[in-house]
Design goal:
The structure is a homodimer. Chain A is an alpha+beta fold. Chain A has two domains: 105 residues, 2-Layer Sandwich (Alpha-Beta Plaits); 135 residues, Alpha-Beta Plaits (2-Layer Sandwich). Chain A is 20% helix and 30% strand. In chain A, strands 1, 2, 3, 4, 5, 6, 7, 8, 9, 10 and 11 form an eleven-stranded mixed sheet that branches. In chain A, a hairpin with an 8-residue loop joins β2 and β3. In chain A, α3 crosses α4. Chains A and B meet through β4 of A and β4 of B.
C-alpha cells in the first residue's frame, strides 16, 4: 500500500494527548477515524498511523508529522482536503505528501523543535489561557538565559525524565535552547535529536524556579550530574507546550509529491 | 452604597452571553457570584450589576464595562485583585474605579466600539476557531470597503435588527465603520452611539455576501431604505465578535480613583 505523510497542527486542549488511550479522545484516534471514513472501511477496521512522537494531554502542535499506508493511491491535495473536511476544527492538516516506502515518521526524524510559552502576567489572559502556562511570579530572564546554556550538547537527562518512562537510553543531544521575552510572555525554544517523556515540561518547571530565585543558576548542571528526577523542579503544565517542527534528512513535504494548505 | 465600575475582558465561548439567563452560565452571573463571595453575602442575596450592554452567546469582550453598588468602601486595587482571584480564567478585570453616584454603565455611555474578525482561509485555524468566524469563500475586500460606507451616519437600522428586539426607536448613528485585511483575517470595526440586537452580526453577514459577489455593492443602501430584516443577509456567528470599548463623557477609568491591571 502506498505510504503517505501529513503535517498537522492541533489545539490539544480537548484531548488526552496525541496517542490513542482508553480514557478519552486523542489526536491519533481522530486522524485514524477520518482516514477510515475516507477509505469507507467498516468501523471495526482501521488504518494504523505512526506519529513522529507523542504529545501529552493539553499539549499543542504546529508541525506534528503522521505517516500511514493508505489502501489506495490518492493525490496529496485530495488527501489534505478530504481529511480537513472530516477532521474536527481543532485539528488541521497543513501539508500532505506521497513518501517512499522506507519513510518512517518516528525513526526517520533527525531532530525536533518544541516551544513553551509562559504568561508572566499577574492574572491569566482569557484568550491565551489554554495556550500558555500562567506563571504570575517575578521571574528573571537573564538568570534563566544563563542557566539554560547548561543543557546544550549531549547529556544524560535522567533528572528530566518522568520515572514512568520505558526508555533505557536517557542520553539526548540538544542543538539549541533559548528563552526570549515578548511582553508578557517568556518563549522557550528547544531543538534536539529527541526528547524524553515530560523532559521539556520538567526543564521548564526547573528553569522557572531558577528565574524565580528559588534555585541557583547552576542548578541544571547539578541535576545533569546527579541524575535524579526527584531533585528537579515540577512538571510544568502541558498547555504551554507546542511541537513546532520535525526535521528529516530529506524533507517529505518538499518537491512535487507534496501539497501545502 | 458606594458605586464602582470595572472594565472586563472575557472569552465568551463557554457562556450563553453577557446577561443572566435561565439556560446556562453567563458572564454577569459569574461577576455577581464573585461579588457575593467577596462581600460574604448568603447565597440567596446578591449584588446586582449593570453592564454597558449585552453580548450574545459566544461573543467576546476586551472592554465591557460593569457597574454596581458595593455594600462597603473598597480600594479599586483590592476590588480588582479580589475579583480576579475569584473569577474563572476566561474572565479578567482590566481596571476598577470608584465612580460618582450618578454614573450608569449603560445610560452614561456615549459610544461603543466593536470588532468582528473573519478568517478567510479554506479550513479553520485550530488556534483561532473560537475567536473568529470562518468564511472560506473568495471575498473581495474593496467591494466590502466600498459597501460599508453606506452605514456611516444616522440611519434607521430596522433591516439589521433581530425581529426579537423590544426596542421601538431603531435609529442609530455610526461614527466609524471600516474593514482591513491582515492575512488571513478580515477585521471589521464599528463605532456608534449604540447598536441594535444582532445588528453587527447581520451587517457582517450581509457585507460578506457583498464581498462574495452574491449581492450588489449598494445592497446596504437599499436595505437601509426598505427597512426589512428578511431582505438582509444571515446573522454571522457570534464567535468573531468582540466588544472593544465603551466611551463615556468622562472616562471612569482615568484619574486617581482608578486602578489598572
Amino acid at each position: 500500500m502506498p505510504n503517505y505523510a501529513i503535517k498537522i497542527e492541533y489545539d490539544g486542549s480537548q484531548y488526552v494527548g496525541y496517542q490513542v488511550q482508553p480514557n478519552g479522545p486523542s489526536i491519533q484516534s481522530q486522524i485514524e477515524k477520518a482516514l477510515r471514513l475516507m477509505a469507507k472501511l467498516p468501523s471495526d477496521e482501521k488504518i494504523p498511523t505512526i506519529g513522529s512522537g507523542r504529545t501529552d494531554s493539553g499539549v499543542h502542535a504546529k508541525g506534528q508529522v503522521v505517516q500511514f499506508n493508505y489502501p489506495a493511491t490518492i493525490e496529496p491535495k485530495s488527501l489534505l482536503k478530504a481529511l480537513n473536511s472530516i477532521l474536527p476544527d481543532d485539528i488541521r492538516v497543513l501539508a500532505a505528501a506521497a513518501v517512499s516506502e522506507d519513510f518512517h515518521a518516528r525513526y526517520s526524524a533527525i531532530s525536533k523543535t518544541y516551544r513553551f510559552i509562559v504568561n508572566n502576567e499577574s492574572f491569566p489572559d482569557p484568550f491565551t489561557r489554554l495556550y500558555s502556562l500562567h506563571h504570575p511570579y517575578p521571574c528573571d530572564l537573564e538568570r534563566m538565559q544563563q542557566a539554560i546554556q547548561a543543557i546544550i550538547g549531549t547529556h544524560d537527562f535522567t533528572s528530566f525524565c518522568s520515572t514512568k518512562t520505558d526508555k533505557i537510553d536517557l542520553v539526548r543531544t540538544i542543538y539549541h535552547a533559548s528563552i526570549i521575552y515578548q511582553e508578557p510572555y517568556f518563549i522557550f525554544e528547544f531543538k534536539g535529536n529527541g526528547f524524553l517523556y515530560n523532559m521539556i515540561r520538567i526543564l521548564v518547571g526547573t528553569i522557572l524556579q531558577i528565574g524565580d530565585g528559588l534555585k541557583p543558576i547552576d542548578e541544571l548542571e547539578h541535576l545533569l550530574e546527579i541524575k535524579d528526577r526527584n531533585q528537579a523542579g515540577p512538571t510544568a503544565n502541558g498547555n504551554g507546550l507546542y511541537m513546532i517542527e520535525v526535521e528529516y534528512e530529506w524533507d517529505p513535504f518538499s518537491g512535487a509529491n507534496a501539497y501545502h494548505l
